[in-house]
Design a protein that fits this description.
heterotrimer; A mainly alpha; B alpha/beta; C mainly alpha; A: mainly alpha; 12 helices; 3% strand; B: alpha/beta; Rossmann fold; 4-stranded antiparallel β-sheet; binds adenosine-5'-diphosphate; binds magnesium ion
Chain lengths: 290, 239, 359
């Protein structure tokens, strides 16, 4: 019985970390994979989703609806940002990254000015379940299911929908897609919006478990970066296994040595992966040679 | 006469595409040799294998008497191989002079560097463009600049990948003269080339590459008369 | 003054000739006279202001080293590093730990300064080795370096417990370390402690001038030539027989050491250091200074940094969040309107006018 309990505890820990990595990196990975832009305002889109979700929930909307609202608002803001800034920098991807950092600063500090240093949050719903002598948050179990659903949904979207086919064509052969009459500008706009919406979704999903502060996005940044780097350029092939491996490492280290070592473990993994597999997991899985 | 380069059983595949299928090739010191073959034959890939940009699946590369198969690119350059790529590989934002400085400064400095740069500006006829950003040069001038840079590392073997692509007939002829000049100074030259008139101008012997293998090697007259070669270029041969 | 036509005979002359060159803007008597006037004005400044204001100006100078280092790494070698604050913070903490253990007598604070810079530079060397020898390129360099600094921040923020001490020095978690001695010069009779004020200001001004001129020499030397060539076309540089990864790693270590110098001086200046000095917001600031000034020219970087810092400082009267919003907007505008940097734009403009006047 004790063994079973421990196994469940480990699985829970792993699932929780896995869910966090997948949910927090999805938006970053979509934008990076499709446009080659690292969105340094990723954390701020997460914060946006969380703030909207919390406000909507406190205004009386049921939580799932509130979360969707958060995602939609973040997506809309993302499309606006794309229209006003990113679109002018397509031929200079490094500059567009810098620009997103400017946006990040404006958003964090702007929210601090307008809404103050914290906002009233919403409690974690669903209570907890008992397994043996320990209790586990049911909501976190729901988050694990959401992570799997998110992966499945993205897979369907990119591999089995018209949007996905055109989107992947646009990444691989932008000129060709352009010549075939694809409105590449609109594609990029939609992609950036989708990435922002996914970030907003992450914020909404985690809003009930976190303190609402303008800098809350930063909590997600390291984990999502690391997952994208380990995953490599092709996020659809790389991100999910990367999240699984990193979750294993992090959950293991956290269980044995505590939170901090979990994070240091992630960083060391990244550096080693980069040294051994320069193309990341996706490069390795696809068998790229030098 | 000794061989400066000896390649044995060189093989490289990218997934299903075999770009080098057991190449055996040798080049005698002081030669001026041309490598020809249809598009996609694996000529550029062969150069990249010689330069260490691709790691071969099998085979050895002996250069100047020693095995360089496992050396990194920059180490091979230091042993005396140099290259001008198919796509001009110059520093477009830097001036012509700076381009030459970067190429020569490793073994020259002060007055001798200056002398060498002047010599190369003479050689490429780029004196007037000394301070021009290299990206503003004409296509032909960019090719010459890159040849000058490649020569600057004082190679024993110079690889040239389609040096006359995009040049006018006049520029092409002048390039041929440059190469004869370099060869006369003792540099062995191996060039990939499509223009048969140019091949006749510079090469004594020619190797034909096809599907990553050596199809035939001989004098220019032999190659031109070879029925198989004509078929390869007309696309009817199956080997 | 050095004119570019003279052929340098001695070694020093040839080094001095490197003060001018294609990699740095500004040449000829007019430029050097302007530079001398600027330095003279900076040297005269403490005579016109009270000690507190001068101490504040010293604070601006502290950051210029990190900015110039980032200029070398990003502007010249083409590697976009988002995490210079990692080396800054590490060296800041190192200075604190070493001085709290060794004390300030016998000029040991200077030893601590040198050690802290060495530690920061060494850390940059290691990170650079893994990145460049692991063939990391482009945006991934930004991500890795940013991750490094954020993880260091998290690490230092959780060192609150009493078990986190190195010798005499408690790391103190989120609140950071404080109470370390300022730089102290050994002197006959009594040591001179350099609290923020004119004497610290002069020391820093001297260091800035030395580092600036030293970097000009380095950037116009053959090393600098190779760095800009790598930025333009790393593949070609490898094919000219250079070990590109070695050059990139060295440039990164130099940039890291400069950030470390800023970090150690910062700790000595304010006698405190906190984990947030390595956080996301802190990491953005060097990017802003260098981008706004102009990353491809060391002079523009230096001028831009000082101007932006002065603007930032005057805005913080209204609250640092307002200042940071303006900084973010400034970065956006620069990237969109003048990607070369505002100072570079202005210098090119002035240069053109100057030439027109002559002809
Ligand atoms: N890195 C690579 N990955 C996959 N295929 C490659 C790679 N490099 C070359 N090829 C393929 O190898 C073949 C030979 O190319 P190349 O050597 O450039 O030919 P050539 O220079 O003779 O025209 C081509 O079909 C090309 O598509
Ligand atoms: Mg070719």
């Amino acid at each position: 019985m004790d063994l079973l309990q421990n196994v469940f505890a480990m699985l829970y820990q792993f699932g929780d970390t896995f869910a966090f990595l997948v949910i927090s990196c999805a938006g970053l990975a979509v934008i990076f994979g499709m446009m080659g832009v690292i969105n340094l305002a990723h954390g701020e889109f997460i914060m946006c989703g969380a703030y909207v979700t919390a406000s909507a929930a406190r205004a009386g909307l049921p939580l799932p609806v509130a979360i969707l609202t958060g995602a939609l608002v973040a997506g809309a803001v993302g499309m606006l940002v794309e229209r006003m800034v990113i679109r002018h920098l397509y031929h200079r991807p490094l500059d567009s990254i810098i620009a997103t950092w400017g946006i990040s600063l404006i958003a964090t500090q702007g929210v601090l000015i307008v809404l103050g240093s914290t906002m009233q949050g919403i409690g974690t719903p669903l209570g907890s379940i008992e397994v043996g002598s320990r209790s586990y948050s049911l909501y976190r179990l729901v988050l694990m299911v959401c992570a799997l659903g998110l992966l499945g949904g993205l897979y369907l979207l990119f591999y089995h929908s018209r949007f996905g086919v055109i989107a992947r064509a646009t990444i691989q052969k932008p000129h060709m897609a352009h010549a075939l009459g694809v409105n590449t500008g609109r594609m990029y706009g939609l992609t950036f919006g989708l990435g922002a919406a996914l970030a907003g979704l992450a914020g909404g999903l985690y809003a009930p478990t976190m303190t609402m502060v303008p800098t809350m996005g930063a909590t997600f940044i390291v984990e999502s970066f690391v997952t994208v780097v380990v995953g490599g350029a092709d996020i659809f092939v790389g991100a999910a296994p990367a999240a699984a491996i990193l979750a294993l490492i992090k959950a293991g280290l956290t269980a044995w040595y505590g939170q901090l070592f979990g994070q240091i473990g992630l960083l060391v993994t990244v550096i080693l992966v980069i040294r051994i597999l320069p193309g990341g997991l996706s490069g390795w899985l696809k068998g790229t040679t030098r | 006469m000794t061989d400066i380069l000896r390649v044995q059983g060189l093989r490289k595949a990218f997934g299903g595409v075999v770009v080098a299928n057991g190449i055996d090739f040798s080049l005698s010191t002081g030669a001026m040799h041309c490598l020809i073959g249809p598009n996609g034959a694996g000529k550029s890939s062969f150069f990249r294998l010689l330069l260490g940009e691709h790691a071969p699946d099998a085979g050895t590369i002996i250069f100047d008497g020693s095995d360089i198969t496992n050396l990194r690119s920059f180490q091979r350059i230091r042993r005396g191989i140099s290259v001008k790529f198919q796509v001009p590989g110059i520093f477009k934002a830097l001036s012509v002079r700076q381009n030459l400085e970067v190429a020569f400064q490793d073994h020259l400095n002060g007055q001798s560097l200056n002398t060498k740069i002047h010599e190369m500006l003479d050689f490429t006829d780029l004196h007037a463009e000394e301070t021009t950003p290299a990206g503003n040069l004409s296509h032909g001038q960019q090719q010459w600049l890159e040849i000058a840079m490649a020569v600057g590392v004082e190679p024993k073997l110079l690889l040239l990948d389609e040096p006359t692509a995009g040049m006018s007939p006049d520029e092409t002829r002048k390039t041929g003269e440059m190469l004869h000049d370099l060869n006369a100074r003792g540099i062995t030259i191996l060039a990939v080339e499509h223009d048969m008139a140019f091949v006749e101008q510079i090469a004594r012997r020619v190797t034909v590459l096809h599907f990553g293998s050596i199809f035939v090697e001989g004098t220019i007259a032999e190659i031109i008369d070879h029925p198989g070669v004509q078929e390869i270029y007309l696309g009817t041969a199956d080997v | 003054m050095i004119s570019s036509e003279t052929t340098p005979r001695s070694r020093t002359r040839s080094l001095l000739a490197r003060l001018e060159g294609p990699q740095t803007m500004g040449r000829g008597p007019a430029f050097w006279i302007a530079a001398a006037v600027a330095i003279a004005a900076a040297a005269a400044y403490p005579l016109t202001a009270d000690a507190w204001t001068v101490g504040n100006a010293a604070y601006f100078l502290i950051w210029t080293f990190m900015a110039m280092g980032l200029g070398v790494v990003w502007g010249y070698a083409g590697a976009l590093s988002f995490g210079q604050t990692a080396f800054f913070g590490l060296a800041g903490y190192a200075y604190g730990v070493i001085t709290l253990n060794l004390g300030a007598a016998y000029g040991l604070t200077l030893v601590a300064l040198v050690l802290a810079v060495a530690i920061g530079g060494l850390f940059a060397l290691v990170i650079g080795y893994f990145m460049f020898y692991g063939r990391i390129q482009g945006v991934f360099i930004g991500i890795v370096t940013l991750s490094v600094t954020l993880v260091l921040e998290t690490f230092m923020a959780q060192t609150a417990g009493p078990q986190w001490r190195i010798g005499e020095a408690r790391l103190n978690g989120f609140n950071g370390m404080s109470g370390m001695p300022p730089l102290t010069l050994p002197w006959v009779g009594e040591d001179i402690a350099l609290y923020p004020g004119p004497s610290l200001y002069y020391l820093l001004l001297g260091l800035v001038v030395i580092c600036y001129l030293g970097l000009r020499i380095m950037l116009n030397s053959s090393f600098g030539n190779v760095l800009v060539a790598i930025r333009e076309n790393p593949h070609r540089v490898g094919m000219l027989g250079y070990d590109v990864r070695l050059y990139q790693t060295l440039a990164f270590a130099i940039g890291g050491a400069f950030a470390a110098l800023s970090g150690a001086l910062y700790t000595a200046w304010g006698q405190y250091i906190t984990p947030s000095s390595m956080g996301l917001t802190s990491a953005a600031l060097p990017i802003i200074w260098v981008a706004v000034g102009g990353r491809r020219d060391i002079t523009a970087t230096l001028i831009g940094t000082i101007v932006v810092l002065a603007g930032f400082q005057s805005l913080t009267i209204y609250g640092s969040q307002y200042a940071l919003v303006v900084m973010g907007a400034l970065l956006l505008v620069t990237v969109l309107v003048a990607p070369q940097g505002l100072v570079v734009g202005a210098m090119t403009f002035l240069g053109r006018i100057f030439k027109k006047d002559k002809s």
